[in-house]
Amino acid sequence: MPIVTVLQGPRTPELKRELVQKVTDAFVDSLGVPADSVQVWIQETPPESWAIGGTLTADK
Q1: Residue 30: which of 19, 38, 40, 18 has the closest Cα?
Q2: To bridge 47 with a disulfide, which of 3, 22, 29, 57 should be the other Cys (CB 3.0-4.6 Å)?
Q3: What domains are there in the chain, each with its CATH number?
Q4: Residue 39 phi/psi, 5° resolution?
Q5: Helix (H) and strand (E) counts for the chain?
Q6: Cα separation of 30 and 25, whole Å?
Q7: Is residue 51 a contact partner of residue 45, using CB atoms and an 8 Å limit?
Q8: 4-oxalocrotonate tautomerase-like domain: which residues (predicted)?
Q9: What is the pTM of this model?
């Protein structure tokens, strides 16, 4: 059972639906596993909780 973890900033439910479908399809196509065996976990971090180059992404 493949488990995929996606770390990202907040996205709309529509974008997350598209993402998990495409990730699932990629595993089905490349590994030949059944779609219902693929788990995709999305962990969202708000912009004020991560930084790039010493600056919070919320401040960019």
Answers
A1: 38
A2: 57
A3: 3-59 (3.30.429.10)
A4: -110, 135
A5: 1, 4
A6: 8
A7: no
A8: 4-59
A9: 0.85
